[in-house]
Amino acid sequence: MVQETYYIKAQASGGGGSVGATLMKSGLTTSYRTGDDGDIEAGRATDFFTLASNNPFGTTERFTDVLGTQVYSDKIFIDWSTYDGTTVLGYGDATFLTYNWNDAIDTALAWSVGSFTSGWRLPNINEMFNIFNHGVTGNKLIAYFPFTLQTGGGQSSILWSSTRLSFSTTNAYYAQNFTGGIRYTSLTNTYNICPVRDFTVNGTTLT
């Protein structure tokens, strides 16, 4: 039986801003009453997909591939909301083979895509939460372009994080794509992974 609980934690991401830059917008644009998230739309960037200023490729696209386009031949999704002027976080396409937590970490560490053969890892829970789009019309918060995460329920939509519980060390957090929840469960359960990598940015070259 999977033990789970909700855990909400905001992600502070760089986006080329100074230290202490505001959090990203949640993506929700529909307001249900004065003062709610959809009314205020607090946060950085123009909207969930549009940066407030240009990325190094001269566009305001939040997500691009390593060449600055949206072709994604290598299935690497660069998230310019995390750009700090030197490095930026990139997500690899999710795998739908399931792993227990330790195997998930090992598999992510051994990940290789094209010329990017090292530096991959399992994302922490903030890095997973940062790509939840709370403005989607369905209940699948990471089922938007360019991500191709499975859209069904159950284990097919669960993604491990590298974040282990400090108060219950036999458990780790995971992201539930189907409902957008952050929960925790036993390390022995088997779920999918979406590896990430920090890329060094030199002009329009990512290494």
pLDDT average, as an integer? 86
Shape annotation: globular
Estimate the strand proportion. Answer: 15-25%
User: What is the H-and-E element order?
Assistant: HEEEEHEHEEEEEE
Low-confidence stretches: 1-15
Helix content: under 10%
Q: Could you say which structural class the secondary elements and strand pairing correspond to?
A: mainly beta
Number of domains: 1
Q: In angstroms, what is the radius of gyration?
A: 17 Å
Q: Please provide the count of β strands.
A: 11
Largest sheet: 6 strands, antiparallel
What is the number of helices? 3
Roughly how many Å apart are the termini? 42 Å
What does the model show?
This protein has 207 residues and is mostly beta strands. The protein has three helices and eleven strands. The chain has helices spanning 37-40, 101-109, 125-129; strands at 63-64, 76-79, 87-92, 95-99, 120-121, 158-164, 171-176, 181-186, 191-193, 196-202, 205-206. The strands form three sheets. Strands 1, 2, 3, 5, 10 and 11 form a six-stranded antiparallel β-sheet that branches. It has a three-stranded antiparallel β-sheet with strand order 6-7-8. The radius of gyration is 17 Å and the shape is globular. It starts with 36 loop residues before the first helix and ends with a strand.
Can you summarize this structure?
This protein has 207 residues and is mostly beta strands. It has helices at 37-40, 101-109, 125-129; strands spanning 63-64, 76-79, 87-92, 95-99, 120-121, 158-164, 171-176, 181-186, 191-193, 196-202, 205-206. The relative contact order is 0.20.
